[in-house]
Amino acid sequence: MQTGDTSLKQHVISRLVSQAHRPRGVVGWATGWMFALRPSNRQRNVWAVSLLEVRPTDRVLEVGFGPGIAITEFARRATRGRVFGVDHSRTMVRQATRRNAAAVRAGRVRLTRASVERLPSFDGPLDVILAVNSAGFWPEPVDRLRELRHLLRPAGRIALVSQPRCPGATHDTTDRAAQELRDLLTRAGFTGLRVETLDLDPPVACVLAVNPADPS
Ligand SMILES: C[S@@+](CC[C@H](N)C(=O)[O-])C[C@H]1O[C@@H](n2cnc3c(N)ncnc32)[C@H](O)[C@@H]1O
């Protein structure tokens, strides 16, 4: 039998998971700020972008950008390229657009409210794709990753990042998440897989992969 405390805890956890999946309304706005201000969230986003070695002319896409921390980092690097972002949360699109207002006004960053299942056009092949703590929410993730691979130019790079936020997450939780991401990327046809780890509590795994030069 559940105690009142247990069911309250479960209720709070399920509300938090639902807000992480699609931040909405005032609570979603506050959740976005929490994502943006929490030092480990900022660190994992900045670190993930640094691993992708973005060049000034790169055309970059982030899926599930939330408050837009990685978008800011991409915009600092892809100074002559273009940064695209999609997120299905209206609240996050507003917040990330505010955070990156100058680059959006300059046309260097384009943030769209869209789900990974129904992506807009990006007017040409992409060089880099990133998703941080987002792929776990996608329906049919192998199909989504295959679609994303077809948007990349040959030898284009992808990074999927996971910092498990479930209560009690440890090194083992992160290792399991990395293995799951590796498996998804392999099944979607990516090659050259490499896993990097950032030693936070819990650790962050970034799985990097490449679109093969002769994609099938
Ligand atoms: C846990 S938040 C992470 C936000 C950000 N990447 C970060 O690390 O701060 C997950 C984000 O993915 C977005 N998201 C989840 N499922 C999505 C989908 N199917 N299509 C587009 N965005 C999605 C959510 O709206 C949310 O902004």
Q: Overview of this structure, please?
A:
There is one protein chain. Helix 3 (39-51) runs parallel beside helix 4 (69-77). It is globular and about 55 Å long. The chain is an alpha/beta fold. It is built from eight helices and seven strands, in the order αααβαβααββαβαββ. S-adenosylmethionine (SAM) is lined by residues 20-23, 35, 41, 45, 63-67, 69, 86-89, 92, 115-116, 132-134, 137-138.
What's this entry about, in short?
With 216 residues, this protein is an alpha/beta fold. It is 44% helix and 23% strand. Helix 3 runs parallel beside helix 4.
Blueprint of the fold:
Elements: H1 4-21, H2 25-37, H3 39-51, E1 59-63, H4 69-77, E2 82-87, H5 90-99, H6 101-105, E3 109-113, E4 126-132, H7 141-151, E5 152-162, H8 171-187, E6 191-198, E7 204-210
Parallel strand pairs: 1-2, 1-4, 2-3, 4-5
Antiparallel strand pairs: 5-7, 6-7
Radius of gyration: 17 Å
Range of helix content: 40-55%
Indicate the overall shape.
Answer: globular
- Assigned CATH architecture: 3-Layer(aba) Sandwich
Q: Low-confidence parts, pLDDT < 50 over ≥5 residues? A: none
Strand content: 15-25%
Bound molecules: S-adenosylmethionine
Quaternary assembly: single chain
State the name of the first-level CATH class.
Alpha Beta
Number of discrete domains: 1
| Strand segment tally | 7
CATH homologous superfamily annotation: Vaccinia Virus protein VP39
Give the ordered list of helices and strands. Answer: HHHEHEHHEEHEHEE
Q: Mean pLDDT, rounded to whole units? A: 92
Class inferred from helices and paired strands:
alpha/beta
Question: How would a crystallographer describe the biggest sheet?
Answer: 7 strands, mixed
Helix segment tally: 8
CATH topology (fold) name: Rossmann fold
